[in-house]
Write a structure and sequence with these properties.
Blueprint lengths: L3 E2 H7 L5 H9 L3 E3 L2 E2 L5 E2 L5 E3 L2 E2 L2 H4 L6 E6 L29 E2 L8 E7 L2 H8 L7 E8 L4 H9 L1 E3 L2 E3 L3 E4 L7 E8 L6 H7 L4 E10 L2 E2 L9 E3 L2 H10 L28 H7 L1
Parallel strand pairs: 9-15
Antiparallel strand pairs: 1-4, 2-3, 2-5, 5-6, 7-9, 7-17, 8-9, 10-14, 10-15, 11-12, 13-14, 15-16
Helix pairs in contact: 1-2, 1-4
């Protein structure tokens, strides 16, 4: 196998974007085989790499196939590798890898369920979550009480939060009538912390349930239960990589034995109301 640019190898390991890795290399924070690295360095397979004095594992550095899975995250699980309080994390249920590791594309907070993308390619994970690509994030949200047109208009035109202006791109009602709790499908293109909840709360609206149902072109596969995993096909992975201008074709189609595979719905397919009814 030929050598690769150092920043590319570090980004693929999930340590940050290529530009972030370039800045760290320039700052003298990376060592290769015991010497300080320079921007433009290339590394051979098996090189010993340290970032900020800590070794980067060989498994994380291995190129492998570019794999992407959908995980149906239940509420109560954290999107983190370990928790000092011993709470459950999403990584406990994921299919094991012989080389590399699963990297989450963004996060879902502990009280939010639904679609979580994970990949073995750190650069792909960084780009899919980066705000510059403006990938859609759709949620099914259950709120308490009735909404008037003025509130809906403010939420789509923009409100001021602690960290700046924000708005939903669209708000689609999913049920009718005068029930105490109503479901909506909302869309935004930002991944700020708790943004969906904070937008509703800015209008004094109480969110009683929140579930992500779409990320970019990928919708929650029909019938995928909480805690289950679905593997994307090579073609679907290439499409995701193309959306964020990521070159190369390292898309593996291997599905982990015992884990469900089906065709995910893409944008414009089944509505979030289907998810509500299944639950």
């Amino acid at each position: 196998m030929s050598s690769e640019k150092l920043q590319k190898v570090l980004a693929r390991a999930g340590l940050g974007s290529r530009r972030e890795m370039e800045r760290r290399i320039e700052a003298g924070r990376v060592q290769v085989n015991g010497r300080q690295a320079s921007l433009g360095d290339r590394v051979e397979p098996g090189a010993r790499i340290h970032l900020d004095g800590r070794p980067v594992s060989a498994a994380a550095l291995a190129p492998g196939d570019r794999r992407v899975i959908v995980y149906h995250k239940p509420t109560g699980e954290l999107v983190t590798r370990s928790d000092p309080e011993g709470r459950r994390t999403v990584f406990r249920r994921l299919p094991p890898l012989k080389g590399g590791r699963w990297l989450a594309v963004g996060r879902l907070d502990i009280n939010t369920s639904g679609l979580l993308l994970l990949t073995t390619d750190g650069e792909l994970a960084n780009r899919l979550a980066h705000p510059s690509y403006r990938l859609v994030r759709d949620y099914a949200v259950r709120i308490f009480g009735q909404l008037d047109e003025a509130t809906l208009r403010r939420l789509t035109e923009g409100v001021t939060l602690d960290d700046g202006q924000a708005a939903f791109e669209s708000i689609q009602p999913l049920d009718a009538g005068e029930a105490a709790n109503r479901w909506y499908r909302v869309r935004l293109r930002e991944g700020k912390n708790r943004l969906v909840r904070r937008l509703w709360e800015s209008q004094g609206v109480q969110v009683s349930r929140l579930m992500r149902v779409q990320y970019g072109p990928i919708e929650m596969p029909a019938g995928l239960r909480e805690g289950q995993v679905h593997a994307l096909t090579a073609g679907e992975i290439r499409h995701l990589a193309d959306l964020v201008n990521l070159e190369g074709d390292r898309s593996g189609e291997r599905a982990h034995p015992g884990h469900r595979r089906s065709s995910p719905r893409t944008a414009g397919g089944r509505s979030a109301h289907d998810h509500k009814r299944r639950r």
